[in-house]
Design brief:
Number of strands: 0
Strand content: under 5%
Radius of gyration: 23 Å
Distance between the termini: 49 Å
Largest sheet: none
């Protein structure tokens, strides 16, 4: 976290609702300098205290519309400030453009083509697992970054390129995480977050940050995941589309649940309620980003049931899961296996080991041909929970079949 001048710069930038890239441009404009000798990375270094602005200080103040003293006067907060999305950006800018463009000039036609490929990859992820899609996903992402860095284009086209890189990074990060490549997924998510913030697309930045928060929460980094989930919600702002806000609140609820404790359980319940309210407030006529097509009341119901299962409240979880699964698309094999795994655990917690065993068999069968680390991990969780009822014949049969 930053302090002193860095904290003041970040506070004033946030007051204006500017990204770090926007502030960098405004500083150059205030200094009357052509080009961009100050970039997003330099602003990040100022804000984190890794470097002092020195000769840029008067231009910083002018760009922000404040006196220099406002930046140089230390501010002692009542409590440590919450992290912002800027705290989770990669240390170096992976999207820094080459000084000499080796590619030709591109226009919106190429961006539209990229947009269609990104959405096609997103739809493929609905029916295929990470292990099947990781290679084409990474290939598309590398190609998109290369185009952005090596080609020339208008400002409008450049912004849309950044948006598509951000969307592609979210899909590719999700796929890498599903394939069990968590370090690669984190790198991809952070690259996408950088693209979204440079494009000043707060909703997309929230989606990327929320996706990374979800991975951190599920891989033993619960406190980091909670900080990032809260930063994603705050960064997207109160005017985010209804589905986006509902999704980010769901991620906050899950993060609180995984951190554990009665206080976090209460926070999780409140976040779930707020997610449902946010979704209900949305209008069918409202324009939503295409990547939120899958967020609906059923998905919120799944998260609610998962929270109840994690909190060992099976009597609430089981009816919700059975309702959702009764109308779920059977072609989405991975998600079906995942949701059934939660039902199996809830049955076991409800002291219904026979039902848990039957459901576990379905989970194992569906997971057998799915190249997903998520489903593999859930199978391990289900079997561990079934082992608590190993004296029940139906359960013993399932456990023996896995030896």
């Amino acid at each position: 976290m930053s302090s002193g001048i860095g904290a003041n710069i970040r506070r004033e930038r946030a007051r204006l609702g500017w990204s770090q890239a926007r502030l960098a441009r405004e500083v150059c404009r205030a200094a009357g300098i052509a080009g961009e000798p100050v970039g997003r990375q330099e602003v990040s270094r100022w804000e984190t205290g890794k470097r002092k602005p020195r000769e840029w200080l008067p231009f910083l103040a002018a760009a922000l519309g404040i006196a220099v003293e406002v930046l140089t006067t230390p501010e002692t907060p009542a409590e440590p400030p919450l992290p912002t999305l800027a705290d989770f950006l990669p240390a170096e800018d992976p999207l820094e453009r080459l000084s000499v463009r080796t590619g030709g000039r591109i226009g919106m036609g190429q961006v539209v083509d990229m947009q269609q490929r990104v959405h096609g990859l997103r739809l493929a992820d609905d029916v295929l697992a990470g292990g099947d899609l990781i290679r084409p996903a990474l290939r598309e992402l590398r190609k998109a970054v290369r185009i952005f860095r090596e080609h020339s284009y208008s400002d409008a086209t450049g912004r849309q390129l950044l948006v598509q890189i951000g969307e592609l990074a979210q899909v590719a990060g999700w796929i890498a995480s599903d394939a069990g490549q968590h370090a690669e997924a984190e790198r991809i998510y952070r690259l996408g977050l950088s693209a979204a913030m440079q494009a000043e697309d707060r909703t997309l930045a929230g989606n990327l940050a929320g996706s990374l928060a979800y991975q951190l929460t599920n891989t033993g980094r619960e406190l980091e995941g909670l900080d990032l989930a809260l930063a994603a919600l705050d960064g997207a702002g109160p005017d985010a589309p209804a589905k986006a806000r509902a999704l980010y609140l769901d991620r906050v609820a899950w993060a609180h649940t995984k951190v554990g404790g009665s206080e976090n359980a209460q926070h999780a319940m409140r976040a779930l309620g707020a997610a449902s309210e946010a979704l209900a407030e949305g209008s069918e006529d409202a324009e939503e980003p295409a990547y939120l097509y899958w967020v609906d009341a059923g998905e919120l119901q799944v998260m609610e049931s998962r929270v109840y299962t994690e909190l060992r409240r099976p009597l609430r979880a089981v009816p919700l899961l059975r309702d959702v699964l009764g109308r779920y698309d059977a072609t989405h094999t991975r998600e079906l296996a995942l949701y059934l795994s939660w039902l199996a655990v809830a049955y076991a917690d409800a002291n219904e080991p026979e039902e848990a065993a039957v459901t576990a068999e379905r989970v194992i069968s569906l997971s057998a041909d799915v190249a997903s680390e998520r489903t593999a991990e859930r199978v391990r969780v289900v079997l561990a929970r079934l082992a608590e009822h190993a004296d029940v014949p139906e359960v013993r049969a399932v456990l023996d079949s896995r030896k």
